[in-house]
Amino acid sequence: MLIYALIPFAYLLGSISSAIIVCQAMGLPDPRTEGSNNPGATNVLRLGGKKAAAITLLGDALKGLVPMLVAHAFGAPPLILALTAMAAFLGHLYPVFFDFKGGKGVATALGTQFGLSWVIGLSIAAIWLFVAKIMNISSLAGLVAMALAPVIVWWFWPAPELIIMQIAMSSLLFWRHRRNIANMLSGKEGRISASNGD
Q1: Is 143 helix (H, G, I), strand (E, B) or coil?
Q2: What Rg value do the Cα atoms of the chain yield, rounded?
Q3: Averaged pLDDT score across all residues of the chain
Q4: What is the C-alpha separation between 168 and 150, in angstroms, rounded?
Q5: Coil, strand, or helix at residue 82?
Q6: Which of 30, 64, 93, 162 is most buried per CB count within 10 Å?
Q7: Cβ–Cβ < 8 Å for 140, 184
């Protein structure tokens, strides 16, 4: 029964908002009410610079990575791995500690993917970095990487539970980025280089 406790553990860990905690600790504006109003690393970059954003990014990724590593340590089967990953992701999107108003999920999703398999995580991260370098738009890089994530999971670990989980996760991520997609279509989406570089 202990293995099933991984799912609520993952959700509660995912519900800890790295962006809000980092901004409070560093005396920065609340990311929920400033910038893009999104408690995520990209908005923290705009509000407080690279150091604050890097800490936020690491915290968000660890929320996805740690539960998956614990699941592997317990020898969890693919179904439990899939549910644990989804719970951590949903915790970030809809955190119980912050009125169910969370971030958009790219870093936490990537953390779960690294926790699933380092080669899966590395492949998806490489896509993100490539698109971000070429297009200079963080949201676009995340969307392209997550659009290809189900194919990458299928290629390296073709368990139906994991593929379904990744399709659901990527679909939710696209939904959370619907405003970014509209901004990209209208040419108004912010670029990475335009963010605060302090």
Answers
A1: helix
A2: 16
A3: 93
A4: 9
A5: helix
A6: 64
A7: yes
